[in-house]
Amino acid sequence: MKDRDSIMETGLLKMELKGIPRRTFIKYCAATAVALGLDYYFGGLFAEAATTALNKKPVIWIQGQGCTGCSCSLLSSLNPGPGEVLLDLVSMRFNSTVMNAAGHLSIKALEDTVKEGGYLLVVEGSIPTRDPRYCVVEGLPFDEIVLKASKNADAVIAAGSCAAYGGIPRAGFTGAKGVSEIVSGKPVVNIPGCPLKPDWLAGTLLYYLSFNELPPLDSDNRPLAYFGSHFVHDTCPRASYFERGQFLEDWNNPATVDWCLLKMGCKGPVTYADCNRIWWNDGVSTCIRAGSPCAGCTQPQFYKDLAPLYVSPLPPGREDEAMPVAQRARGIHAGSVALGAGIAAAPFVINKVADLLKKKKEGVSHDGE
């Protein structure tokens, strides 16, 4: 115990030398524990896992058909930054965006880690399947790289919507797929988002290192605490306007600039994420607070089935049904943790719920539908 305490103290001192006070780091770990549905005192366990890991968990990070936006999001994180989370917390063996090595040296690091086994594989970007030439990495089709890299991995993390479900590339002609459609026989956790929020990845890593298992997942393999408990709409800062039926229709009208963005394409009522609860960029803002409607980027249907982004998901003239629709959607969620699992597209969900409401008002039971 004494040795372990000494190691933890050394780890916290190391954080302080890098400009991160121990109180700040421990508070971050406690907040992460709470976000994951645990009591705050588990933060100490998270901090211990982060600072006493003599043999850091090896990580391989590979990138396919994407824009590197998730890597950029991670590299822009603060308190703690990417160095403390991904370099002190784990051993980043391969990441073509941030590693110093290149060419045969970097490939050797990748191959040696795969041969050694016992690592976490992080995949960023979708996997094209229609023609292997659409995405070639180090002379090999990306799907082969993914299968090869996942062979000896303990678990696979699909970082971002492209890796999780195909994302924007899936709407194109490359036959883009998510990791779970390619990899079998390995636990896969999806951390969607376009891009992902660094806290989601850091929290998942802290949980795994603390308990040697992935956190509880919803039916779409997303960490339940971040994506399965509430809609973006539930904590929307424009909710009062939504409830009054006041919807923004003109971006240039200063009198209505803060009104509900539903008519401008907001998918918040059918999107699971904690964006409005825990803000991005060290608590600076969120998409909706910055004036952008929710694009539904954490849903499996993004982007293809939620486009166009700036068009209301409700048919013209039916925006007045939005409030009871959202209320009814929350009722469905209470009985089933993953409403999004059976969604084909946001318009379908809203229309379906509206029909159920209509039947209920007419005295027709909807049990079993």
Say which CATH homologous superfamily of the domain at 232-361 is assigned.
Answer: Cytochrome-c3 hydrogenase, C-terminal domain
Note the main sheet: 5 strands, parallel
Beta-strand content: 5-15%
> What is the CATH topology of the domain at 232-361?
Cytochrome-c3 Hydrogenase, Chain A, domain 2
| β-strand number | 7
Shape: globular
Order of helices and strands: HHHEHHEHEEEHEHEHHHHHH
The amount of helix comes to 25-40%
Condensed summary:
This protein is an alpha/beta fold and 369 residues long. It has 14 helices and 7 strands.
Describe what you observe in this structure:
- The chain has 369 residues and is an alpha/beta fold.
- Among the domains are: 127 residues, Rossmann fold (3-Layer(aba) Sandwich), CATH 3.40.50.700; 130 residues, Cytochrome-c3 hydrogenase, C-terminal domain (Cytochrome-c3 Hydrogenase, Chain A, domain 2, Irregular), CATH 4.10.480.
- The chain contains 14 helices and seven strands.
- The strands form two sheets. The protein has a five-stranded parallel β-sheet with strand order 2-1-3-6-7, sandwiched between helices. Strands 4-5 form a two-stranded antiparallel sheet.
- A hairpin with a 2-residue loop joins strand 4 and strand 5.
